[in-house]
Design a protein that fits this description.
alpha/beta, 5-stranded parallel beta sheet, 14 strands, 44% helix, Helicase, Ruva Protein, domain 3, Rossmann fold
Amino acid sequence: MAQILLVDDDPLLLEGFEQLLQDEGYEVVTAASGTEALDRLPGLHPQCIVMDVRLPGMDGLSTLKAMRSSPSCPPVLIMTAYGTTDTAIEAMKLGAFDYILKPFEIPKVLALIARAVEAGERQKAHDSQGGETGEESVCLVGSSAPMQKLYKAIGRVAPTDVQVLLRGESGTGKELVARSLWKYSPRADRPFVVINCVAIPDSLLESELFGYERGSFTGADQARPGRIEQAAGGTVFLDEIGDMPLSVQAKFLRLLQERQIERIGAPNPVPVDVRIIAATDVDLEKAVQEGRFREDLYYRLKVVTLWLPPLRNRLDDIPELAQALLARHAAHIGVHNPGIEKDALGYLASQIWPGNVRELSNVLQKVLVFSDGSPIRRSDLLRVQDFDRHAIGGDAAPAEGSTNPNPGNSQSPAGETRLDSAGASGEPEASPDADRILEPLIDPLLREGGSAFDRCMDLMGRAVVKRALEMADGNRSRAARMLGLSRPTLLARMERYGLRVETRIR
């Protein structure tokens, strides 16, 4: 029999509500104040709490906040005669399952309580199996063959001091691999410094990396060591190195060759002792051919190259990965980890994930924000995420779209050892007419190699969003409805595709 804790200071309402719920087959425990409810709660195991917002002493919202601080708090329904926006928003912000407006219609209230009790029962079942902790989720996760191969490679490379180049698609976890290499290295007690070459403007990158002397340029009132120098004895992770300007590449080459840096305006080089781990999703071979990346730097970087497998090549890892990511987000946000049901895990494992682990992580973070505290179901995922362009249907594996120019080969173009595995082939079916129309657009991208799949999807996505905005005469809300997206999602897509939010598209 499901147990409900009923909290209200009105004895008549308390008695009547108690009788109503008992007639429905529930075990009812009552409390006349928030303080009494908190005192009684440790000795109870309710599947649901129904509580008035106006209580003597500690009000309902304050009591809710105190209850939600416990990781095992069941779903809480707030009753109020004042259905103000502030009350509703505050209740939901504090983690209420829902709220009930007085006077209420009994059938609707009973249906809402039934849903809350069901959610509470699922939560209890999950808790009894033991949940994930946030601490466990900070490491690399996955037991698939590609990940096992990667773990072995990390184990061999980490204790050495060789330079490592991490390659693979965006969102595959290159920084996590870099941190693992640092964690298991002799330099683990020294700094780990992350530098994103794209996040720093080209005009500032040199001074940020190498530092400068006093008076070397306007505003340089005092000497400042660069971030590489600050990492003395430790490890520097240079992300997006494929986008490093040519003007900086020469100085960086000197660092790799001579273990020296040149501060801007300094008469003499400065010796440094750091380990360099670099990462990129850029086709470096193509960049070298086009003169965008120095050939000598390319060969200096790739002493050891680790290829990170895309998520579509290790779909078996998704259940474990999703649970770990959910635990991590719950710990970060400061909410109870609701867990995730099998149907939701199966649904996640049926998607392509062109954004790889980062995309999966974002989806789980979003669904957690809107969670009612019960274990996440497939329906919860469908409510918060547009999977239309990712769905592959059935159990078919997605088409290969790796950044590796020669997927499936044991050797990369320059002969470095690959440490990922090729994925299975298979694509969603499309109509013959659509295939013929799209071929002239797709073929050049495929011939270029690299991340052809992502670029094709971005090309199509940009065209669809742009056309929807044109048809909606620049009205973003109307365009979002046409696309089946939320307005914030549309704005994010516009930003991604270079369709400026402030620009009216005609």
